[in-house]
């Protein structure tokens, strides 16, 4: 390509304390394109962005390199000139829209700062331009919004405001650091579409920093793969996804869950990212690389620049074959066992108090009439966006929160009616695994004590010695060393902690495990390990899972049945093939289309307007109708339950 | 014959508790790590040395007994003096017994005020009389004093250096046994916190030995109105400060922890009641509550004077009740903090996991909640200490503190402040009290900061 | 909002009742009125007649809770609990044990207290804020480190030292201000200089340190990074973004003590001879005038609760995120 690059980064190295977080980074971004920096957590993605803006934390410093933006070396600029660049030619948006806006200044005031500084506007011109900007990022009623504070906006709206603020200085390059990670898929689709449209309209270049391969595939023109502070591979994204050159990139792609890979274990990457306080003598990925040779450990691989803008840092790049599309493994159709858990009409309402004597005035209907049926040895996935009440369903089934109405039939016994003492025997039958592996283990207890807790509390294994033997056996079962017994949770990585949590749940030999987003806090490669483990345990022990997730690819890979939840109700319920291949409800369709995919077949994304309404004041009739592309006047009536097949039903008047 | 005061017993119980916790903490990695980082910081190590010095003096002053009187005639069995002394008193005997007539300046050889002196030839003149003890060994104080002080100080320094050197040699020898001489040297001096602690220890030893060399011959901090040695009073006040600073928190601790955790965990009615309790207590301005309570205590004690065997015991009981009252007025802050933290913890996933495993509420509180709020308790104990020491002085000053007969910095200041109007000004009593108090509070504050940062940096802003 | 305020005022009643019961228990149950009379009249030679007279003059000769000799409501109203404790709810403080009208005294004496407390608060706020901002501007440098060490040292000095030292240095050695005393009207200013200076000085250590941590806490937040990424100068980031947010806890912390300013400061007022409520209380403590102490305890609780309500209201004013229902 003969175009001049907009941003050219050469030999950039950055230190954070004694850690060399970035080592010899080289890449460039051309005007108008989207360039993605792809990497798992801790690889140095965000540090790259902060280095470019020269906003490193106090203990960080750029050791060497050049960063040319439009021909000017940013690293040589004096601070006052750099301030003109920040927010001017080079703008940035951050991952957490919730905390990235100043809570005590109005949106208008925050937008005005940039406009005054970079555009020299004042007075009336500022508010006119601010209204234009808010309009441009798709915020309805912008005049009124200017006087509002950030807390009055939803997460997606805040990210739009962040984008508007970044656009205020009319930048040439926008650095977007995980711009959609904190958002739901339907909102993510909105924001990504907005970015694309802004690029078309203004010729903006975007440096997209993300861990999400799907997002990269859908938005990036070119990309670089970052691992342990180094770029391992760059190239146009289409070529990359067809044939990744580096073994790491290949492994990443293979470890993504996918309905095609059902029935077979996912590829995983063993080990951990190496600590960065050392001098490397070989390839940084070599210790985890399945193809590693002698030379990989002894010599630092040189950079191979190939034609077509591709480059790779590997000795063995020529020997990596193109990706073979996975063929679906025909899964042994397990016999649908008898019903284990039957939930009917489950309601969980949280009272809203108000007035002089704090009387109950209304209720947040977090769960409003949910029916579920889980069979022995099967996985039922409960899918929905954040705030739809899926976690509440899980906790209510375990009686961790009070239930307002409904029955929970387990083994012929209604758990919802039992008193706490009578419930205790059932504690060993139903267990739970949580989302955040860092919050789900008591930091003050030894790992062994945590795992043994249930055995002790329920008096299953009263003898301490026998208990210890059992814990060691459990540790081995989840793939951990027996020495983990004597250690504390903080010594383990997120994935290992999740294994410990699984061991703790398994200890009491439950029949059903409630998995509440067990992999959403984990990196892709680690997620694959946990999914494999869960699958293996199900096969070996005949466990049933109630799998709560917002990630449809994970659900598609693992579950046999799917329930789609929206605002406290289930909109559609069916076998996974039925839901994936013939979704009936408009919401299910939109949800499925909004998931970023690497190899998209049908390229049509259904964009939902607006966001999830408050469960305190749900819309009348079908909860989904204000956002539904197919809504009509009859949607104001409670939607009927329409059976599509023996296993598949949908709650929508349009499918009658 | 030993005498056990209530506060003595509590103080030693506290010491035992602290030592027990230390041994327990040494076995628990998550407890050991933050304390190691306290010791790894230079400020932490230095403050710990200084605070230990104060602590040693305080503990020495907490072992009381009736001294044995010399055997008289053929009476059977030993007889005991009615006077109650502590080990510290025994050690400071020259300071305690060398009482002058009235004020004298530090290192003075003559009294502060002129008196009629009868000369050997029978005439009387009005002049500053020689002190009975301060510099009494000098023939001609005007010429000899400076030299004498320098000589004795040098001797003290030499002693201090000898002891310090011996200590260093002992440590070196111990380390050299396991890792060789060179390594041992760098272990001892190459490590900044250890070096700082050693130097502080040296400095303290030097100070101590110099004062010890001078004190029997001079009044280092002068004497007060009734001629008592001010240094002696200052040192005796250390125990009072320590007792107030530590026992107060110890007394309120169980209540605050229990109620705070219960309110946060069970919520509902229990929470409402406990919140009502601490809001009510909190809403009374603490000085007034203390004043009211101490006044009532005074009335009670005056009307039941027969219940106490000795003045010292009465003073000690008043000290104990003062701690109790201070504790009652100050537990609310910790209670509220713990309630808030427990509210957060009970929503944590690991607590929910334990509930799902059928762990009962009591086990859950003991295993999951309490260990995770313990750091807040520790931080509040060390943070409160310095404030309480300062509060003692103020309260004693406005006569609602410790018994007037008890040695305390507040009482020293109270009795000395009127003398500021004198010409020349009597400054030494105030200076001694302020200096000793300042050093204790300063190092307690520094130590508290280090502890808080090590245990929970989030709490940085929590100090009121 | 109005529902909230009403609820808060209703909630104040059980608290004040609790405070009253507490003081009642302290003053009348721990020691009987007889004990107090004996104490007041001197320990040794007290005749029962003298005690009875002392009690009668001050209204302590009635039963504690229930008066069997009275009739109707009088059985409950003609008791010590009603007259000495519940009457306080009407702000009827009665007369002191020495026979003076407490309500009148309080109304007279709160003005000198305010004349000291308000300037100390305002000047102190200004000084502490400026000092803290100065340190934060130089954060991470030796200036900051030195400042923090100085603050810890200032914090470790007894407030008695500030007062005595101030009196000695400014009043006696430099003769810049009168050591103690008070005057009526505007002439009072020269007597206020010294106590205000001393009051501000003694608050610098803890105040500045607290404000500095507030600033540093805000400085570490995400929106500050956003502001920098916009290209704002360090000065603008500090004064517009960090200061704006850190002022919330600072201001509300000031508001909570506002009503308590009426009570004045025990120490300062007695040292400087200011005839305010602080020295009034202290004199009462020293003279063991329990009626005054009881009245001041009640007044203090009322003002404290008022402070809490004002704090909540001030949050609504300064923090757009807070709403009261």
Reported CATH architecture of the largest domain in chain C: Orthogonal Bundle
Mean pLDDT of chain C equals 84
| Main beta-sheet strand count, sense and barrel state of chain C | none
The name of the CATH superfamily of the largest domain in chain C reads MetI-like
CATH class label of the largest domain in chain C: Mainly Alpha
The residue-averaged pLDDT of chain B reads 85
Largest sheet of chain B: 3 strands, antiparallel
Share of β-strand residues of chain C? under 5%
Separation of the first and last Cα atoms of chain B: 46 Å
| Rg of chain C, alpha carbons | 25 Å
Task: Summarize it.
The complex is a heterotrimer of chains A (656), B (464) and C (325). Chain A has 656 residues and is of the alpha/beta class.
Search tags:
heterotrimer; A: alpha/beta; eight-stranded mixed β-sheet; 20 helices; C: 325 residues; mainly alpha; MetI-like fold; 2 domains
Describe this structure in words.
The complex is a heterotrimer of chains A (656), B (464) and C (325). Chain A is of the alpha/beta class. The N and C termini of chain A lie far apart (56 Å). Chain B has 464 residues and is mainly alpha-helical. Chain B has 16 helices and five strands. Chain B has a three-stranded antiparallel beta sheet with strand order 1-2-3. Chain B has a two-stranded antiparallel ribbon with strand order 4-5. The model of chain B is unreliable at 460-464 (pLDDT under 50). Chain C is mainly alpha-helical. Chain C has two domains: 2-90, no CATH class; 102-318, MetI-like fold. Chain C is built from 14 helices and no strands. Chain C has helices spanning 2-29, 33-41, 48-58, 74-77, 80-85, 102-137, 142-155, 159-173, 189-219, 222-229, 234-257, 266-272, 277-287, 290-318. In chain C, helix 7 (142-155) packs across helix 9 and helix 13 (277-287) packs antiparallel against helix 14 (290-318). The radius of gyration of chain C is 25 Å and the shape is globular. Chain C starts with a helix and ends in a 7-residue tail after the last helix. At the B-C interface, helix 10, helix 11, helix 14, helix 15 and helix 16 of B face helix 1, helix 2, helix 7, helix 8 and helix 9 of C.
């Amino acid at each position: 390509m003969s175009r001049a690059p907009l941003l050219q980064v050469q030999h950039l190295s950055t230190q954070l304390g004694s850690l060399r977080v970035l080592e010899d980074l080289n890449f460039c971004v051309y005007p108008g394109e989207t360039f993605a920096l792809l990497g798992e957590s801790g690889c140095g993605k965000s540090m790259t962005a902060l280095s470019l803006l020269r906003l490193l934390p106090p203990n960080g410093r750029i050791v060497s390199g050049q960063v040319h933006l439009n021909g000017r070396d940013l690293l040589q600029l004096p601070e006052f000139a750099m301030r003109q660049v920040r927010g001017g030619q080079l703008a940035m948006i951050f991952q957490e829209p919730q905390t990235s806006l100043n809570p005590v200044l109005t949106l208008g005031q925050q937008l005005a700062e940039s406009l005054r500084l970079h555009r020299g506007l004042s007075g009336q011109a500022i508010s006119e331009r601010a209204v234009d900007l808010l309009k441009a990022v798709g915020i309805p009623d912008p005049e009124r919004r200017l006087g509002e504070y950030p807390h009055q906006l939803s997460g997606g709206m805040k990210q739009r405001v962040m984008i508007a603020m970044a656009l205020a200085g009319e930048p040439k390059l926008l650095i977007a650091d995980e711009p959609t990670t904190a958002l739901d898929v339907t909102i993510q689709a909105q924001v990504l579409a907005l970015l694309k449209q802004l690029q078309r309209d203004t010729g903006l270049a975007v440096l997209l920093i993300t861990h999400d391969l799907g997002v990269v595939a859908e938005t990036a023109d070119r990309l670089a793969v970052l691992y342990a502070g180094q770029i391992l591979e760059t190239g146009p994204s289409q070529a990359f996804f067809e044939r990744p050159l580096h073994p790491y990139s290949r492994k990443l792609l293979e470890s993504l869950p996918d309905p095609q890979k059902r029935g077979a274990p996912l590829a995983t990457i063993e080990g951990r990212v190496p600590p960065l306080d050392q001098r490397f003598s070989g390839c940084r990925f070599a210790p985890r690389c399945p193809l590693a040779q002698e030379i990989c450990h002894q010599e630092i691989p040189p950079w191979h620049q190939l034609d077509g803008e591709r480059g790779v840092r590997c000795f063995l790049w020529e020997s990596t074959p193109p990706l073979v599309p996975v063929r679906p493994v025909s899964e042994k159709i397990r016999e649908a066992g008898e019903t284990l858990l039957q939930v009917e009409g489950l309601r969980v309402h949280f009272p809203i108090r108000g007035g002089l004597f704090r009387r109950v005035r209304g209720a947040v209907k977090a769960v409003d009439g949910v029916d579920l049926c889980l069979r022995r040895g099967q996985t039922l996935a409960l899918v929905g966006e954040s705030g739809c009440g899926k976690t509440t369903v899980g906790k209510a089934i375990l009686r961790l929160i009070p239930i307002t109405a409904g029955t929970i039939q387990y083994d012929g016994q209604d758990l919802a009616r039992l008193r706490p003492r009578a419930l205790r025997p059932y504690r060993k039958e139903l267990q739970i695994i949580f989302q955040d592996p860092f919050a789900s283990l008591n930091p003050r207890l030894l790992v062994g004590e945590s795992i043994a807790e249930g055995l002790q509390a329920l008096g299953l294994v009263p003898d301490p010695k026998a208990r210890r033997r059992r814990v060691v056996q459990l540790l081995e079962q989840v793939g951990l060393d027996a020495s983990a017994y004597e250690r504390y949770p903080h010594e383990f990585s997120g994935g290992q902690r999740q294994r410990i949590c699984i061991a703790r749940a398994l200890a009491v030999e439950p029949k059903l495990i409630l998995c509440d987003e067990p992999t959403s806090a984990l990196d892709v490669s680690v997620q694959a390990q946990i999914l494999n483990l869960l699958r293996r345990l199900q096969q070996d022990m005949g466990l049933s899972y109630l799998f709560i997730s917002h990630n449809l690819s994970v659900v598609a890979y693992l579950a046999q049945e799917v329930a789609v939840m929206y605002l406290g109700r289930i909109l559609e319920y069916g076998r996974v093939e039925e839901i994936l291949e013939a979704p009936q409800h408009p919401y299910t369709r939109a949800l499925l289309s909004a998931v970023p995919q690497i190899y998209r077949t049908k390229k049509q994304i259904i964009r939902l307007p607006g966001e999830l309404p408050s469960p305190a004041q749900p819309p009348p009739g079908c909860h989904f109708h204000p956002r539904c592309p197919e809504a009509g006047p009859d949607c104001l009536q409670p939607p009927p339950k329409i059976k599509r097949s023996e296993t598949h039903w949908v709650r929508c008047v349009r499918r009658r | 014959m030993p005498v056990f005061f209530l506060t003595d017993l509590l103080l030693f119980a506290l010491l035992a508790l602290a030592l027990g916790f230390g041994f327990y903490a040494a076995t628990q990695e998550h407890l050991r790590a933050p304390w190691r980082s306290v010791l790894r910081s230079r400020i932490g190590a230095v403050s710990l040395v200084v605070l230990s010095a104060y602590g040693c003096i305080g503990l020495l002053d907490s072992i009381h007994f009736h001294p044995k009187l010399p055997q008289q005639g053929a009476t059977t069995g030993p007889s005991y003096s009615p006077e109650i002394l502590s080990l510290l008193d025994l050690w400071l005997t020259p300071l305690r017994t060398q009482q002058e007539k009235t004020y004298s300046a530090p290192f003075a050889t003559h009294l502060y005020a002129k008196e009629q002196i009868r000369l050997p030839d029978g005439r009387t003149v009005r002049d500053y009389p020689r002190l009975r003890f301060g510099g009494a060994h000098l023939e001609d104080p005007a010429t000899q004093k400076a030299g004498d002080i320098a000589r004795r100080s040098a001797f003290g320094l030499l002693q201090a250096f000898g002891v310090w050197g011996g200590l260093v040699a002992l440590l070196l020898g111990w380390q050299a046994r396991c890792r060789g001489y060179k390594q041992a040297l760098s272990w001892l001096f190459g490590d900044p916190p250890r070096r700082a602690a050693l130097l502080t220890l040296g400095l303290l030893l030097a100070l101590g030995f110099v004062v010890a060399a001078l004190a029997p011959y001079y009044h280092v901090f002068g004497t007060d109105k009734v001629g008592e040695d001010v240094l002696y009073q200052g040192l005796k006040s250390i125990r009072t400060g320590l007792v107030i600073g530590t026992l107060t928190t110890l007394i309120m601790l169980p209540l605050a922890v229990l109620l705070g955790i219960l309110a946060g965990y069970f919520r509902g009615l229990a929470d409402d009641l406990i919140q009502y309790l601490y809001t009510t207590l909190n809403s009374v301005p603490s000085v007034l509550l203390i004043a009211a309570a101490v006044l009532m205590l005074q009335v009670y004690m005056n009307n039941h004077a027969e219940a106490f065997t000795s003045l010292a015991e009465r003073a000690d009981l008043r000290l104990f009740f003062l701690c109790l009252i201070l504790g009652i007025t100050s537990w609310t802050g910790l209670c509220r903090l713990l309630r808030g933290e427990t509210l957060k913890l009970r929503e944590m996933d690991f607590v929910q996991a334990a509930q799902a495993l059928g762990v009962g509420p009591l086990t859950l509180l003991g295993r999951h909640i309490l260990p995770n709020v313990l750091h807040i308790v520790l931080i509040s104990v060390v943070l409160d200490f310095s404030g309480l020491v300062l509060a003692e002085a103020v309260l004693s000053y406005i006569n609602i503190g410790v018994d007037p007969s008890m040695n305390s910095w507040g009482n020293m200041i109270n009795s000395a402040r009127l003398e500021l109007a004198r010409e020349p000004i009597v400054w030494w009593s105030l200076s001694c009290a302020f200096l000793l108090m300042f050093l204790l509070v300063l190092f307690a504050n520094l130590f508290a900061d280090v502890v808080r940062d090590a245990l929970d940096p989030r709490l940085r802003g929590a100090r009121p | 909002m109005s529902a909230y305020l009403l609820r808060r005022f209703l909630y104040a009643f059980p608290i004040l009742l609790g405070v009253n019961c507490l003081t009642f228990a302290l003053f009348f149950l721990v020691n009987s009125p007889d004990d107090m009379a004996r104490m007041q009249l001197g320990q040794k030679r007290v005749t029962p007649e003298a005690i009875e007279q002392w009690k009668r003059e001050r209204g302590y000769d009635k039963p504690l809770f229930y008066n069997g000799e009275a009739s109707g409501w009088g059985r409950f109203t003609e008791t010590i609990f009603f007259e000495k404790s519940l009457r306080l709810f009407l702000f009827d403080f009665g007369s002191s044990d020495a026979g003076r009208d407490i309500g009148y005294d309080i109304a007279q004496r709160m003005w000198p207290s305010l004349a000291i407390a308000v300037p100390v608060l305002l000047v102190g706020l200004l000084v502490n804020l400026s000092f803290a901002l100065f340190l934060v501007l130089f954060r991470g440098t030796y200036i900051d480190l030195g400042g923090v060490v100085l603050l810890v040292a200032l914090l470790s000095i007894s407030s008695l030292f500030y007062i005595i030292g101030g009196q000695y240095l400014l009043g006696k050695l430099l003769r810049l201000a009168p050591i103690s005393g008070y005057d009526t009207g505007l002439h009072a200013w020269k007597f206020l200089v010294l106590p205000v200076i001393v009051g501000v000085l003694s608050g610098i250590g803890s105040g500045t340190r607290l404000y500095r941590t507030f600033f540093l806490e805000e400085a570490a937040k995400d929106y500050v990074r956003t502001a920098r990424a916009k290209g704002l100068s360090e000065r603008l980031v500090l004064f517009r973004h960090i200061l704006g947010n850190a002022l919330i806890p600072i201001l509300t912390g000031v508001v909570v003590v506002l009503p308590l300013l009426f009570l004045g400061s025990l120490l300062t007022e007695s040292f400087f001879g200011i005839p305010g409520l602080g020295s009034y209380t202290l004199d009462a403590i020293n003279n063991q005038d329990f009626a005054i102490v009881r009245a001041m305890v009640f007044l203090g609780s009322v003002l404290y609760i008022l402070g809490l309500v004002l704090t909540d209201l001030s949050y609504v004013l300064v923090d757009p995120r807070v709403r009261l229902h």
